[in-house]
């Protein structure tokens, strides 16, 4: 009760204590007497006054007690005020003639107070009743909200006749309503729409025309918007998780609302129809057909396949099936297309065939087409049946390969691999034991908390889905809760101390969930058993102790086994991946907590979050970062756990990869792998591959299979030496990163008062430099830790590296951490698992290979290099015997670790009685001489440039980098004689190393700005060069390098300019630049205007930007600048693949690092026969360029080709 109300009550009480003895005149308006009566005279005896005072006190106490009880009741929101009884004094109190208050005085003021209290009591009671009613209503609403709503089945149609037709069949009782209804609805078309409805229908048809195409390889149409992608993914996942009624409910909800109906496409209707067909529910199928017709769409092959499949499962009467087939024919669809143009499982195909045969007994599905034959002139010899072939076989017997297959299968089914770390082990002190125990207990708590949060999130998303909104609920049902929890715990373990951007973490989690879902679905569909059966037969082609009837390529043998290809698993759209990953990351932030005592032992033991969401600036953008608490990072460091966790797809394979047979089948056994790697969400490359004739891709598919079939092993002796350095303090000169403890210490941040501003700026620059170096050292150390740990894990194993390619056709190993595309250290750790005897010339090639690795004798003949190797044989043997304590000659090489590995191989060979019989496992390299310039010289028929890059016969090998450096030196000497200061300063500093990177990259589109930065970096590495001239000297040298290249390669710049201008004209008309490589790989440049989408909600809204969206306009600048280097890269990859296929036909082991080819020492002469045979490839490219010039000329662009056309002949 407020003070004001209490004050008013006290004032009234004061008047109530004054009693009246006789009535007075009526009170006048506006006076207090009008309320309380006239004032009494105060002339009373003292005894009477005392009695009046006692009575007033008693009455006051009664009222105060009642008031206190009322206030107490209000404080607990409960009315408990008792009825106030006015106290009465005894009639003879204090004697027989005692004072007796008049009745009116007794019942007057006190009765009014009691009435007032009663009124307040009734008011509070009413408030209580209203509050109780309100709480009951809210509880009922919450219960209704928590209780799943009944799922809608019957749609609300916009078209009147269709709605009436549906109503009759829904509420009528014909004998077979849904079978008859399906036949009728297929013939129905919305008619007599209003003008607005017609316009809306036209817009919908125009938007959906591309999406209503038959299933199967189709050109890329307009891409779906973000909401459409999420809705389609929701429907598909509902079918996979058994939530078909929920998918139907959401589809009906969207269809019944005109605004949301605009999001629906025929593919969404077809998805739900296929679900009902698989369950044999005709009723649900007909409902969806009604919606399709109501939306103004025409059923396609997938729609009819669903209807006929359902009829086959239910064994419908022939009359209904015939009417369905007749309507399909009227819609212009062919019956054969149901079996050739729709991706169906074997079970679905059988149900479909059952229905069709019932209506047409003579029908038989089209037979499997004969294997297509590649007709490329470049590949004629590769696929020729005549002549002898000697395809290589593995060195392992069948039983061993079968055991390796089982190991790989278990690894992919487990999805994760635990690898022992090679970091120096910490001693098991009490602190380490305590930290590991604490971490173990915390993980148990975190897993329980994650289970609870995951269940709550799924329940919330399920309620939202029942409201008709597409959510992530079915995505979270694809995997078990335990799998999600393990995945999140692994992500927490791998989170770096400096944190990771929320967008990057969300994308990683989304991709891991998708990969696990694909593996899980293959288990459910019994594809694992079929794979095991066919793979065991496939191993007969590869095993060393088995023979096949006719030698053939792995792809051909796999296809001959008749392996049914399962329908390809479509990747989730990028918005769905990011949204799912973000949801999982937020659950991790919410659930994972730890006691504060770990961070501050003196404080209270309350829970604090392990992960914090903070913002940081990267360049000019502000990004959200999830950062672990420093106490958690310290706990991990103190525990020093000896294991690392890797995804199965990041590991080398333990058995030969699956042969590539199509754009979506090959490489890993179960894990999904793209044939053409591209940014997630980019579908244009996949569409091009699917539209390409299968035979056109045979060259690329077989080359990738051949590269992946090369078996590897780890060079154990070299690995021990590297681990010794790694566990010590590393060695930057040898490429072994030092530990973080060796990072430079930043200067003191506190400066004394009065420090000059220049000194403050210098301290800030030094601090930034130290932080940058520390971050770089941490990154390099982590990369080396992963590589060396995997090498140690695979030390005694044979393994394989499956390959795929980028959009230009350049090949890459799929495992990212340990492969032969790394630097010197990574390459030195790898050896061929199968050895070959050196033969008569193998030892010579080992020696030449060693000299090439040292970087010496670049312009000397092979005989001179061989003689030099024989001269330094003592140093070679000393390096092999005492690599860390001897003369250390190998450490001065350009590639020291590879040189050391070669020294050990040479020592082993020369110390055997018969070096020709020595079995060598070392790969010998044959590197290209600036392949980019070679291609330009060949295209331009430039004889001078061709001689500089060894395309012309010569007694001595030419080194184009040394040639450019010599030409630059001529220009520098001329300028120095004229008194140019920078030219005089550069005397003695113009070397091959300074100009090499710029010369190598200029043909790939490097600009003068980029070339200047490259040369500046090389000049800063020269300790005796005056650093104050670095900026001016780099400007001078890059200009002279470009001038030298223009003079030495007269046609190169002209061809580059022509290609650049062609790309500008193509992109100017709204098209991306596309071409087909000589081996048949379709290429499209993925450079478009940026498109953005936002994933809203949660701890942060994520804005994702992509320049790969083909629905956007091409980015003219990137298209024209990227065309020349991408075009040359595609030629380079075609040359490599062609060489690989020829070497495989000859039985050679062959791998490559782009333009650097590897094989056994004994097989180098055979490989070189095909390495130089690229004349036919160049002729094909020239023909293609002539066609491009002709096409541009037809569009009024013939002026582009005038300057270059003559140089092609």
Automatic annotation (TrEMBL):
Give the keywords, sorted: Coiled coil, DNA-directed RNA polymerase, Nucleotidyltransferase, Transcription, Transferase
EC number(s) recorded for this UniProt protein: 2.7.7.6
Into which EC class is this enzyme placed?
transferase
Which Gene3D superfamilies does the UniProt record give? 1.10.287.280, 5' to 3' exonuclease, C-terminal subdomain (1.10.150.20), DNA-directed RNA polymerase, N-terminal domain (1.10.1320.10), Tetratricopeptide repeat domain (1.25.40.10)
Superkingdom of the source? Eukaryota
Which cellular component appears as one GO term in the record?
Answer: DNA-directed RNA polymerase complex
* Classification via InterPro entries: DNA-dir_Rpol_C_phage-type (IPR046950), DNA-dir_Rpol_phage-type (IPR002092), DNA/RNA_pol_sf (IPR043502), RNA_POL_N_sf (IPR037159), RPOL_N (IPR029262), TPR-like_helical_dom_sf (IPR011990)
Q: Where is this region: Disordered?
A: 15-51, 187-225
Recorded coiled-coil stretches: 114-141
Q: Ranges for the DNA-directed RNA polymerase N-terminal domain?
A: 406-709
Q: Which PROSITE patterns match?
A: RNA_POL_PHAGE_1 (PS00900), RNA_POL_PHAGE_2 (PS00489)
Keyword Transferase on entry? yes
Q: Which reaction does it catalyse?
A: RNA(n) + a ribonucleoside 5'-triphosphate = RNA(n+1) + diphosphate
Q: What does this protein do?
A: DNA-dependent RNA polymerase catalyzes the transcription of DNA into RNA using the four ribonucleoside triphosphates as substrates.
Q: Which family does it belong to?
A: Belongs to the phage and mitochondrial RNA polymerase family.
**Name of the featured protein:** DNA-directed RNA polymerase
Give the organism, scientific name. Answer: Galeopterus variegatus (Malayan flying lemur)
């Amino acid at each position: 009760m407020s003070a004001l109300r209490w004050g008013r009550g006290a004032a009234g009480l004061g008047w109530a204590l004054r009693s009246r003895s006789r009535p007075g005149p009526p009170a006048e308006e506006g006076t207090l007497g009008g309320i309380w009566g006239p004032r009494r005279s105060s002339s009373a005896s003292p005894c009477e006054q005392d009695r009046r005072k006692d009575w007033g006190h008693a009455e006051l106490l009664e009222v105060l007690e009642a008031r206190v009880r009322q206030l107490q009741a209000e404080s607990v929101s409960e009315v408990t005020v008792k009825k106030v009884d006015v106290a009465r004094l005894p009639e003879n109190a204090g004697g027989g003639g005692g004072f007796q208050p008049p009745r009116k005085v007794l019942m007057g003021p006190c009765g009014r107070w009691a009435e007032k209290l009663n009124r307040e009591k009734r008011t509070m009671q009413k408030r209580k009743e209203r509050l109780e009613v309100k709480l009951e209503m809210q509880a009922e609403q919450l219960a209704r909200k928590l209780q799943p709503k009944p799922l809608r089945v019957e749609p609300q149609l916009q078209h009147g006749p269709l709605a009436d037709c549906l109503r009759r069949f829904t509420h009528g009782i014909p004998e077979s309503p849904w079978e008859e209804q399906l036949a009728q609805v297929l013939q129905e078309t919305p008619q007599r729409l209003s003008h607005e409805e017609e316009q809306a229908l036209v817009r919908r048809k125009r938007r959906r025309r591309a999406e209503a195409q038959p299933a199967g390889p189709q050109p890329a149409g307009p891409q779906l918007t973000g909401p459409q992608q999420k809705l389609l993914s929701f429907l598909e996942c509902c079918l996979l998780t058994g939530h078909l009624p929920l998918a139907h409910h959401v589809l009906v909800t969207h269809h019944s609302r005109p605004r949301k109906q605009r999001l629906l496409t025929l593919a969404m209707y077809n998805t739900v129809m296929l679900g009902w067909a698989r369950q044999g529910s005709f009723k649900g199928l007909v409902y969806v057909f009604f919606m399709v017709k109501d939306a103004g769409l025409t059923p396609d092959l997938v729609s009819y396949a669903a209807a006929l499949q359902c009829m086959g499962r239910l064994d419908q009467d022939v009359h209904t099936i015939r009417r369905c087939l007749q309507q399909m024919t009227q819609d212009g669809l062919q019956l054969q297309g149901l079996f050739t143009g729709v991706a169906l499982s074997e079970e679905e195909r059988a149900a479909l065939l059952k229905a069709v045969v019932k209506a047409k007994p003579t029908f038989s599905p089209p037979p499997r087409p004969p294997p297509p034959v590649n007709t490329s002139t470049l590949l004629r010899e590769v696929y020729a049946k005549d002549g002898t072939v000697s395809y290589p076989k593995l060195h392992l017997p069948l039983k061993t390969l079968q055991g390796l297959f089982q190991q790989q299968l278990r690894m992919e089914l487990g999805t994760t691999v635990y690898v022992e770390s090679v970091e120096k082990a910490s001693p098991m002190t009490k602190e380490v034991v305590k930290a590991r125990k604490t971490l173990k207990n915390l993980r148990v708590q975190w897993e329980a908390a994650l289970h609870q949060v995951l269940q709550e999130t799924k329940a919330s998303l399920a309620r939202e889905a029942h409201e008709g909104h597409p959510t992530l609920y079915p995505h979270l049902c694809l995997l078990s809760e335990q799998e999600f929890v393990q995945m999140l715990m692994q992500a927490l373990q791998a989170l770096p101390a400096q944190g990771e951007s929320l967008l990057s973490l969300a994308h990683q989690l989304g991709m891991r969930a998708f990969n696990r879902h694909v593996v899980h679905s293959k288990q459910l569909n019994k594809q694992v058993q079929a794979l095991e059966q066919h793979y065991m037969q496939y191993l007969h082609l590869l095993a060393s102790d088995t023979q096949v009837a006719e030698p053939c390529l792995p792809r051909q043998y796999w296809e001959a086994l008749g392996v049914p290809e399962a329908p390809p698993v479509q990747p989730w759209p990028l918005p769905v991946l990011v949204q799912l990953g973000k949801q999982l990351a937020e659950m991790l932030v919410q659930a994972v907590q730890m006691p504060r005592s770990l961070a501050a032992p003196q404080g209270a033991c309350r829970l604090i979050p392990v992960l914090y969401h903070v913002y940081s600036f990267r360049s000019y953008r502000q990004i959200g970062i999830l950062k672990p608490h420093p106490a958690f990072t310290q706990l991990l460091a103190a525990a020093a756990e000896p294991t690392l966790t890797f995804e199965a797809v990041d590991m080398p394979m333990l058995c030969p990869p699956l042969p590539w047979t199509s754009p979506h089948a090959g490489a890993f056994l179960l894990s999904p792998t793209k044939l053409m790697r591209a940014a997630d969400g980019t579908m244009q490359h996949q569409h091009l591959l699917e539209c390409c004739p299968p035979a056109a891709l045979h060259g690329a598919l077989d080359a990738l299979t051949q590269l992946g079939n090369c078996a590897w092993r780890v060079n154990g002796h070299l690995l021990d030496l590297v681990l010794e350095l790694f566990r010590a303090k590393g060695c930057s000169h040898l490429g072994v990163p030092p530990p973080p403890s060796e990072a430079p210490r930043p200067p003191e941040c506190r400066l004394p008062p009065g420090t000059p501003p220049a000194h403050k700026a210098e301290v800030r620059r030094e601090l930034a430099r130290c932080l940058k170096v520390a971050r770089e050292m941490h990154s390099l150390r982590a990369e080396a830790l992963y590589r060396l740990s995997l090498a140690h894990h695979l030390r005694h194993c044979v393994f394989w590296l499956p390959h795929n390619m980028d959009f230009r056709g350049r090949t890459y190993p799929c495992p990212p951490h340990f492969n032969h595309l790394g630097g010197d250290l990574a390459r030195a750790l790898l050896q061929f698992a199968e050895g070959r005897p050196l033969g008569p010339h193998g030892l010579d090639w080992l020696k030449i290979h060693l000299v090439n690795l040292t970087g010496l004798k670049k312009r000397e003949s092979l005989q001179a290099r061989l003689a030099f190797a024989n001269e330094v044989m003592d140093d070679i043997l000393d390096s092999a015997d005492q690599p860390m304590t001897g003369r250390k000659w190998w450490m001065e090489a350009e590639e020291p670790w590879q040189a050391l590995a070669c020294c050990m191989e040479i020592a082993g060979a020369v110390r055997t009685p018969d070096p020709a019989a020595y079995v060598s496992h070392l790969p010998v390299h044959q590197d290209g001489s600036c392949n980019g310039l070679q291609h330009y010289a060949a295209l331009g028929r430039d004889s001078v440039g061709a001689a500089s890059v060894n395309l012309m016969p010569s007694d001595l090998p030419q080194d184009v980098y040394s040639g450019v450096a010599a030409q630059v030196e001529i220009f520098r000497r001329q300028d120095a004689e004229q008194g140019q200061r920078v030219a005089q300063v550069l005397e003695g500093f113009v070397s091959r190393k300074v100009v090499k990177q710029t010369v190598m990259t200029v043909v790939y589109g490097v600009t003068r700005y980029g070339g200047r930065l490259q040369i500046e970096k090389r000049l800063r590495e020269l300790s005796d060069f005056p650093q104050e001239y670095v900026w001016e000297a780099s400007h001078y040298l890059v200009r002279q390098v470009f001038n030298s290249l223009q003079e030495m390669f007269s046609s190169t710049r002209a061809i580059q300019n022509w290609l650049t201008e062609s790309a500008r004209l193509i992109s100017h008309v709204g098209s991306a630049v596309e071409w087909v490589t000589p081996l048949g790989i379709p290429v499209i440049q993925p450079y478009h205007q940026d498109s953005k989408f936002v994933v809203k909600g949660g701890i942060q809204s994520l804005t994702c930007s992509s320049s790969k969206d083909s629905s956007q306009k091409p980015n003219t600048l990137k298209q024209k600048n990227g065309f020349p280097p991408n075009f040359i890269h595609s030629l380079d990859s075609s040359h490599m693949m062609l060489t690989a296929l020829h070497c495989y036909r000859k039985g050679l082991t062959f791998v490559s690092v782009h333009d650097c080819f590897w094989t056994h020492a004994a097989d180098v002469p055979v490989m070189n026969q095909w390495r130089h045979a690229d004349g036919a490839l160049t002729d094909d490219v020239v023909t293609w360029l002539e066609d491009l010039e002709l096409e541009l000329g037809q569009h009024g662009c013939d002026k582009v080709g005038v300057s270059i056309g003559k140089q092609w002949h």
